[in-house]
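Please fill in the sequence for the structure shown.

STRUCTURE ENCODING:
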């Protein structure tokens, strides 16, 4: 039997109560004996007390070894009934002051064994008490009381019947109440166990929820010291829970409101969350930008705050702002290109008209040709810029990819260093696909240039064309 079980504690309490009552009875009788007022001999009673103490010691030794504590308690109670009957007999039988001890055994049966066992124990107690009194009445047992005067059988019989009747009434009354009280006690214990189990489950669930939250969670007492930490908070702070407990608010959050300011803000918001950004101070004194949401605990016993790492969000926001700036620059440049293109067209048209009307010769004609040529070149640059700045429309045409790659390789052969060897790995025949030929040429050209730049000491550039089937 487990030493910490409820049944163990009940049986152990029964043993200790028995030892205490025995000590009290022995002390009372010894005091009366010293005063010279005992009508019966004390040594037999003290011998009985010694037996009870010996049995108590044996019970304590056996308690940790028994498998059925209720059965063990029941055997003790029946033994107690026998010892109680001996005590009543040794202390005067019908004149004994200890019949009430039966009631304690009846009550113990309902608590330590089973509620309805109280009636069985009460019946056993009544029978033992009746046999004890009847044995002395009819002379089966010698009386332990010193004769104090003449008495007749009728008087003794009436006294015996009265005592037995009183014991019957008292025993069954106590058995009745013991049954109900023990039943209520067992029911209350069951409810307490169920409540404790439910509370334990709720505590485990609460702990699992707190530890599973993706945000860092910290609770602070009214003084601003950390009291509770979850795993995410440990990870973000680079500290263990034991190291975080007791840390001050201001030692964790920098660049945000203080604990007092947070408390005042929550009080003004009538229990609405208070959100702000701060820099979390980590174990190595580095800072991390976090978003914090603080709320009051129940009855304003403290503050709970959840916080998340905003580093990635801040980086994305900066990228978006940078992209917006680039887009604005692009729109401005496109508008500027349009504005430049219009006067260039006017200049070119005017020069053409002058050349046709003046028919210049020599250097004048050559200068006008330079103006026209450079105007065309500048217009081409602006056109290319505008084409680059706006999304291009893809024009798919059935194209032989072998011809496209071969054309690019021929151009590359005239530009690449002599240390670069160009190898071709083309299939027999054609490899046709529906593509934008211009974009494919540009992509292959860029790849080839990158390959040449990646081999400053020379090497082999191998171009391969294959036919693949896309199952999607």
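FILLED IN BY: designer on duty
SEQUENCE:
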């Amino acid at each position: 039997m487990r030493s910490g079980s409820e049944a163990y504690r009940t049986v152990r309490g029964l043993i200790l109560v028995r030892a205490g009552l025995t000590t009290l009875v022995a002390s009372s009788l010894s005091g009366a004996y010293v005063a010279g007022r005992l009508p019966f001999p004390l040594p037999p009673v003290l011998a009985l007390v010694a037996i009870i103490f010996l049995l108590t010691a044996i019970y304590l030794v056996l308690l940790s070894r028994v498998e059925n504590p209720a059965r063990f308690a029941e055997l003790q109670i029946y033994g107690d009934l026998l010892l109680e009957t001996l005590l009543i007999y040794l202390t005067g039988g019908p004149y004994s002051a200890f019949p009430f001890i039966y009631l304690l055994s009846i009550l113990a049966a309902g608590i330590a064994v089973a509620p309805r066992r109280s009636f069985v124990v009460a019946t056993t107690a009544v029978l033992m008490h009746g046999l004890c009194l009847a044995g002395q009445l009819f002379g089966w047992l010698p009386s332990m009381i010193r004769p104090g005067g003449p008495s007749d059988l009728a008087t003794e019989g009436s006294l015996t019947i009265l005592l037995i009747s009183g014991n019957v009434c008292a025993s069954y009354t106590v058995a009745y109440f013991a049954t109900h009280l023990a039943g209520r006690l067992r029911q209350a214990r069951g409810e307490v166990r169920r409540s404790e189990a439910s509370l334990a489950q709720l505590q485990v669930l609460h702990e699992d929820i707190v530890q599973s939250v993706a945000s860092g969670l910290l609770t602070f007492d009214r003084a601003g010291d950390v009291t509770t930490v979850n795993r995410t908070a440990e990870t973000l702070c680079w500290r263990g829970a034991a190291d975080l407990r007791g840390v001050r608010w201001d030692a964790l959050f920098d660049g945000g409101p203080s604990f007092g300011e947070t408390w005042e803000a929550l009080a003004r918001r009538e229990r609405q969350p208070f959100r702000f950004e701060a820099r979390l101070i980590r174990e190595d004194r580095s800072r991390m930008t976090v978003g914090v949401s603080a709320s009051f605990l129940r009855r304003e016993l403290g503050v709970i705050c959840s916080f998340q790492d905003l580093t990635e969000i801040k980086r994305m926001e900066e990228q978006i702002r940078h992209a917006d700036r680039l887009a604005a620059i692009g729109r401005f440049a496109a508008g500027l290109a349009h504005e430049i293109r219009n006067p260039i067209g006017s200049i070119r048209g005017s020069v053409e008209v002058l050349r046709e009307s003046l028919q210049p010769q020599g250097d004048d004609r050559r200068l006008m040709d330079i103006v026209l040529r450079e105007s065309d070149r500048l217009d081409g640059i602006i056109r290319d810029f505008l084409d680059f700045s706006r999304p291009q429309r893809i024009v798919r045409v059935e194209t032989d990819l072998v011809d496209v790659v071969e054309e690019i390789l021929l151009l590359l052969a005239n530009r690449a260093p002599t240390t670069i060897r160009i190898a071709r790995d083309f299939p027999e025949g054609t490899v046709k696909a529906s593509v934008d030929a211009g974009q494919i040429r540009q992509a292959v050209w860029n790849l080839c240039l990158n390959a040449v730049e990646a081999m400053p000491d020379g090497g082999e550039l191998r171009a391969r064309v294959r036919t693949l089937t896309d199952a999607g």
